[in-house]
Amino acid sequence: MNFITQVTVSVIIYFLLRIFLKDRRSVYISSAASSFSYIFLYSLAYGIISNTPDIHFVVTGLSLIFIFIAFYEMVVLEKTMLNLKNGDFNDMPKFSIEKSYKIVFKILGIGLLFLILSFLSGFVIQSIFTTNLIIKVTFASIALVIYLITLIGIKKFNLTIKSSVRNLFIALCAVWIAYIGNVIFIYN
Length: 188
Description:
Elements: H1 3-20, H2 26-46, H3 52-85, H4 97-125, H5 131-156, H6 161-187
Helix pairs in contact: 1-2, 1-3, 2-3, 3-4, 3-6, 4-5, 4-6, 5-6
C-alpha cells in the first residue's frame, strides 16, 4: 500500500466516522481515529517508524489528512450558513456555528504544525539545501505567521472567527499550491 492510498483510506475513515457520529466531539474523535489509522497503515506497510524519512512521510501524510479534514468541515459550515441565510432551519447543527469555526481553526493549526514538521524533516533528510526546499519552508513560514497573526487578532482585537478561518484556509491552500507548483516547476 503506497503513501497516497494510505492517506486516502485514512480520509475515508474520517468521513465515515464523521457521518455516523453525531455529537460535538465527533470531529475530534474522527480526526484522531483517522490519524491513528494512517500511522497504523504506514507502520503495517513499511515497518516500525524509526528513521527520519519515515517521520517525514508520517508528518506529511498527517498534514494532508488535516488539510482535507479542514476543507470538508469548511464546506459543511458554508453549506450550513447558506441554508440558514435561505431560511432552511431543518438541518440545524446541534452546536453553534461559531463553535464549529473554532474547531476548524484548531484543525487548521494542527495541519499547519504537521506541514511545518514535514518541511523541517525534509531539511534533515536532504544534505543540500535546494531552492525547492527553501521555497517550501518560506511558504510554510508565511502560513505560520498568518496563523499567529490571526490568533492574536482573535484574542486581542475581536477579529471574527468566521473570517479568520476563511482567510487562514486560503493561506494554507496557497501554501499547498505553491508546494505542488514548486515540485512541478523544479522536476519538469
